[in-house]
Amino acid sequence: MARLTRRQVFALAGAAALLASAPDLAHAGQPASSAPDPVAATYLRVLLRHTRWAEQQFDPAAGIYPARDFTFAVVLGNALLLTRPGYDAAVAGVDRETLRAHTLATISHFAASNRLTGGAEWGRRLFFDTTFQSYFQLAARLLWTDLDAVTRRNVERIATEQAAYTASLGTGNDPASGDWTPNGLRGGYVGDTKLEEMGVYAQSLAPALAWAPQDPRAPEWRAAFGAWSRNEGGLPAADQANPRLVDGKPVSDNTAANLYDTFLVENHGSFGPHYQEELWRTSGRNAMHFLAAGTPLPEVLTAQPNGELLWRTMLLMTSDAGEPLMPMVADREHLYGRDAIPLAFRAQVLGDRFAAYAEAQLAARLEPYQAYPPVDRITKFSGEPKYEPEARAELAISYLLHEWRAQHGGPISPVGKEEFDTRASDAKDFGPGPGLLAHRSPAAWAATVSKPGFVKFAWQPNHDDWLFVLGGANPMLLPTTDVPVRERHTTAYRKIRDGFDGTVGVLRFDSGYAALATLPTGTAVYASTGVAPGEGVLDVYNLSMPGIPGLDGTRAYTAAEGTVTLQAPSGARTDDLVFAPTTARHVRMLGVEPDPQYGYSLWSFEVRDGDGADLAPAGTASASSASPGKEAKYATDGNSSTRWAVSTSDRRRADSWLAVDLGAPRRLDRVRLSWEAAAGRKYRIETSADGASWTPVATYPTPALRSTGGWLDIDSRAGLVVAGPNPLTVTNDRVTLSDGPAAPLLAELYPGRADLPKLAARPRAAATGIHATVTDGFLFLANLSTAEATGTVALPRDRREIRLYRGAQTVRSTGTEAEYDLSPAEARIEPPRFALSGTVPAGLRAVVHDASRVELTGPPGPRPFPVTVTPAGGTPRTVAVPPGRTVPVVIGGVRPYPLDDRALGAVTFPAEPLPPGMTSPDAAVDDNGTTAWQPGPDGRMVVDLGAALPIRTVELAWTPGRVPGAVLETSTDGLTYAEAARPDRKRTVSVPVSGPVRYLAVRTTDWRTADAALIRVSART
């Protein structure tokens, strides 16, 4: 490889005026510019403070940052700080020259110890070595002129020989990476997406293409890079509908299936949005090499097949911190340092203003997060040790992306919160495979999660992922996450088709049914037949992390009985339980509910009589199970650095125990348990004379608040209104809505309300055999049984008006009596379609057909009844209803929701990148008469209806002008299509089709530049 060109040095430095007169970056002094924008400035401050952690890893005996956990990757953050202004040794904890010496020595060492340069310590292995090679090489390029000639040659060789090695594998597996495989170019999506693996293959090629584009082997590398990159987000049904050339190859040549057809990914057996971000994480790493080298970006980095469709689902999952909510992942949540680069790439390279907003939200939380113990680190709470140096490197890359953007078009202006929330709002059923039904409204995020091992009804008001504990095996509403789901029934309401966004998820268990309905207001309704004792669990984060909204070190809980304020725990939990004096030989802790991730683990188990000495060390400890090196004896050995922990296989076992045989009967009245992070959620202390028959003497925990008033305010951030026979309790920041035996439960979950007592006291909907409520004006009905349910539900009358819902209802003196007919396990949401006001007579019958049509039938009487009818969001109309006669009321100009067009709001192909001359096919299914699909030459669009449906009629509507010839094609798999019809050349045409249809294609045959565009394609059952 040749020495860096002047253009490459220029691109790396980011200071044109200075470098124009300075051929040597290392000796030209620091660049004159400061951080290009506030987010980049935050990254620089965080990296500077993070240097304290990095220096703690330095091995003075070896004179380098170690290979352990790829810690040497800290050199990229170091290199950035050493080549930018504002270095502050007091903040970094090390002077600049020492940091420079440590960094250069580490780069020289690991450049020589890489397997690609003749070493044996690291390198060449695709998984994980090439990720850290990418960081390492960027660090070397930033400090290029400070490196000796041998190190430079080694860095060059790492780039080119890694590319040669990867290319030599073809589409085969790396033998050094174990069972890690991309499955060739076929990919895979069930269980573990291969998006990540294909991304790693691509990123192992990027440095050589960026820094050695003239190498004679580069064409082979370029072809391999393109193949892996284009297939990362592969979905055959989408790809085969897109003839667009990307880097000279049609997207339709892609072969991989790495995504579910609902555009999300799965990894480690569960929905993993962190891995969904991998498409932009690897793109950020790769792009930085090209941008730094001044080499043109491969087109695939800015025209990623299916990338925009994948991003839509990421927006739906976004928390208020800009990172995704992870209801099935026990790891990789709150890894703020690692979640910046996907957003930085989308914002700074792709120019995505929505990603820029999310990135700004994440950046705003980085410094408070970094200050929380353990201080200085940027991947706390979960993750592997290697994440810390990786996050440092990726924050440095994120900064460089901002710096590049500042020189190429200026900063990206983020959208505002309201615009972001509007764009991100959606309701989507991702299917039984991923096990996710999700809804994001401007005020909340909620989901029905039904993946084995991760069963929960999740709700996060205001998208605040520091309010309720959401991830992995942490329960939400259901008291445990591992109960088997026997049936799953889901409905996603879409505003474009139903007039509102919302979801209903019904799950059947061996012990009964539970359901969650979500409303566009952010409110959710939870209904249950009583599937388990202690139902309605919500665990609340209570941390002292100043700067993060809500984490001020306390949580206040207010109920009818008063307010209790709970302090954030400091350090590991220690429980002191005092009980009536007793005499016993054996004492044990019997678990009732373990930590959901790690079970039970105790640093110490002490037994005392009053203020006397600890009796346990003289006894013999035993346990239900133990992990190697963490046997029962270590909980009673008096050593605070040793502990007992249950075996890995018993972590989910509730009734694990630790017992102490005191050797003889002893008087005792208290125990102290010092827990590790795996602290028991619930347990009993029991005593025994013989070790066989046990007597409970104490239980943990004791509720801090117990209420029968039917409502609870949580820190003014969430409000709960509960109807059920059991009390509501708060214990150690765990809320239990039905703390008692399994019993029917109906709970309304509000994203902050000041009128909870009033809501709890209001007249409620009443029905026999079903769950029913009117919440935020929406009628929720749920038949949580195995039999069909028919009948009426009494709905209380509003003081100002009478709300009418779809179906038949009769006005009574106290409200309305609505008729229902529900299938087994059916639940639904009905928005108010009309309101009646004025003197509405009892006995008036109303039948609502849709949002624009209602029939009113008058009760007996001497004269017509004047009734004012107001459609939702419409203009009032007064009609006279004769006694015993039916008057149809049709409101013109009101959309007749729910609409029967199954194409409305459906996913369409091709998605970006679009073929030349074509506009987005979304315009033909957006219910907007001012937008239209422009086919372009030989245009073809596909509508994915989401499931095979018995479509009977397809309608096409074109703009004025010559209507091109068109062919309708249908498919059930998105791969094989059959011609269904050739519609007449009319501006609006309806044609019959037959058979089940999931994918509906419209292909033009003779389109010309001035021809009509397609306003609407409709599919009706």
User: Span between N and C termini?
Assistant: 63 Å
Name the helicity range: 10-25%
Described by strand count, sense and barrel closure, the largest sheet is: 9 strands, antiparallel
Please provide the count of β strands: 49
Rg result = 32 Å
Mean pLDDT over the full residue set:
94
- Poorly predicted runs: 1-33
Strand content: 25-35%
Q: Could you explain how this protein is built, in words?
A:
By secondary structure, the chain is of the alpha+beta class. 22% of the residues lie in helices and 29% in strands. It is built from 21 helices and 49 strands. The strands form 11 sheets. Strands 9-10-11-12-28-25-24-14-15 form a 9-stranded antiparallel sheet. Helix 16 packs parallel to helix 18.
In short:
The strands form eleven sheets. Strands 9-10-11-12-28-25-24-14-15 form a nine-stranded antiparallel beta sheet. Strands 16, 17, 18, 19, 20, 21 and 22 form a seven-stranded antiparallel beta sheet that branches. Strands 31-34-33-37-38-41 form a six-stranded antiparallel beta sheet, with no helix packed on it.
